[in-house]
Amino acid sequence: MKRCTFFIMALFLLTSGAFAQIEGGDTEVSFMGFFFTRIGEDIEANGAGSVQLSYGKYITPRLLLGVAPTMTFYTGQDEEGEPKLETDFSGSIFFNFNFSTASKFIPYITGQYYQSTFDIPEDGEFTDYSYINVGLGFKNFFNEYAAFNTMVSYGFSLAEDADWANLVVQTGISFIF
Predict the structure, then answer these.
(1) Mind listing the pLDDT tens digit for each residue in 7-48?
(2) Which residues on adjacent β-strands are paired with residue 33?
(3) 97 Cβ neighbours under 8 A, 6+ residues apart
(4) From CA 173, how far away is CA 14, in angstroms rounded?
(5) d(Cα 36, Cα 16) in Å, to the nearest integer?
(6) 9, 94, 147, 168: which has the highest count of C-beta atoms within 10 A?
């Protein structure tokens, strides 16, 4: 009896969610949040939280190209040394390559050019705040058009003398139109 109940429940779970059917020309909009930190030998402990809205078009059923404006929140200091909440605008252009196109669970690889800020100090270069990120992710569809989306990426800094990188873990919801 226990085996039969387990089999029925497993079959129900595997077939209960509608399968995603991604096609070329589909649009994907994602609302993601992530934690960002720099890693390296001489980097102080740091971190920031961000919210991101991404928009992309499927060129083929497997290849998504898009843009992702981002707002980052972090703690800074005012002139008196008191903590204050600061915001910064950033963004990326990206691609995702899906390993599947018609499944409830879709793993993918991602690559992106990420600009960590558009407010470049006078003594800085644009590339000092630029990264090339590569990563892995998955979408788990809970209905035909919406999925939980999770991704982990590692970013290489384009700064001339960079000895740091970034590690980003994103999670959120994606919608396919």
Answers:
(1) 554 444 444 444 568 899 999 999 999 876 767 777 665 667
(2) 51, 171
(3) 62, 63, 64, 108, 109, 110
(4) 20
(5) 35
(6) 147
Show the domains of the chain with their CATH numbers.
2-176 (2.40.160.20)
The mean-pLDDT minimum among 41-45, 61-65, 119-123, 150-154 falls in 41-45
Quote the tokens at residue 75. 């703690």
Residue 80 has which token pair? 């008196």
